[in-house]
Amino acid sequence: MTAGVDRGHPQAQAIRSDEDVVRVRQLVRTVAVAVRLSLVDQTKLVTAASELARNTLVYGGGGTAEVSTVDNGLRRGVRIVFADDGPGIADLDLALTDGYTTGGGLGLGLSGARRLVDEFDIDTGPERGTRITVTKWSR
Amino acid sequence: MERVPVLKIGDILLVSIQVDMSDQTAVQLQEDLAERIVATGCHGVIIDITALAIVDSFVGRMLSTIASISRVLDAETVVVGMRPAVAITLVELGLSLEGIRTALNVERGMELIAATRDDDHGYDDADEPGDQSTDTR
């Protein structure tokens, strides 16, 4: 957890189906609007959330997204934590490479999502699942 | 599961995506469109994404796939109405929307399809003997 950052009360959304991925997008948009992210930043964050929520479902076998507001004294932002108890990512460098995929997609989910947010943190390993934390700050 | 309606207007199929699509809905739309192209013999498909707040890699891939399927079935696809924020995000995400033709709105999309069909009738480069790109050895 970043020091000196106040976290608002988080809202959680389970990710167990296609429809839940849609719900994650809607929840993230609502919070992004509430902290007054610009339209482009809202769009980037919701798109990143959509990619990561789909990864949680497809690769992690389902999990949760926890959305909260953050405040570092200067700016406000939105933080989302995607967590699953899946097999974990075996080769993180490879998984973060544009175009690499094991799931038949375009291989842009993880690498693309990282480009769309301000902070991106990933904790993964065999037997302990995957936990990805992203933050987008207001300008 | 929600289903996106496909409307026939003259020689064109118009799809206006008004819902936040689940992945399953997107895949269903792909199949519905392929069937409607064959059933109607339409030569143009316009996909209006004015109402879409985001286009992620899944929807982007769906649009590319629809364009490819349509081409095989002798129809042109034009994607219209992309919001500026969506365009900016798509590029940063790394999606190039390969093979997809775009226009600003439905009207321009229809003009583009009409112009493409006219060109095809007057000049078909696949039949041009000097065209090296058609050499399939």
From TrEMBL, chain A:
- Pfam family for this entry, one: HATPase_c
Give start and end of each Histidine kinase/HSP90-like ATPase domain. 40-139
- Per the record's keyword annotation, is Nucleotide-binding included, yes or no? yes
As given in the record, the signal peptide range reads: none
Q: What keywords would UniProt list here?
A: ATP-binding, Nucleotide-binding
Give the source's domain of life in one word.
Bacteria
Annotated GO MF terms: ATP binding
What is this protein identified as?
ATP-binding protein
Species this protein is from: Micromonospora carbonacea
Organism lineage:
Bacteria, Bacillati, Actinomycetota, Actinomycetes, Micromonosporales
UniProtKB/TrEMBL annotation, chain B:
Q: Which residues form the STAS domain?
A: 2-113
Locate the region Disordered: 117-137
InterPro entries reported for this sequence: Bact_StressResp_Reg (IPR051932), STAS_dom (IPR002645), STAS_dom_sf (IPR036513)
Sequence intervals crossing the membrane: none
Query: What name is this protein filed under?
Result: STAS domain-containing protein
Organism of origin is Micromonospora carbonacea
Lineage of the species this protein comes from: Bacteria, Bacillati, Actinomycetota, Actinomycetes, Micromonosporales
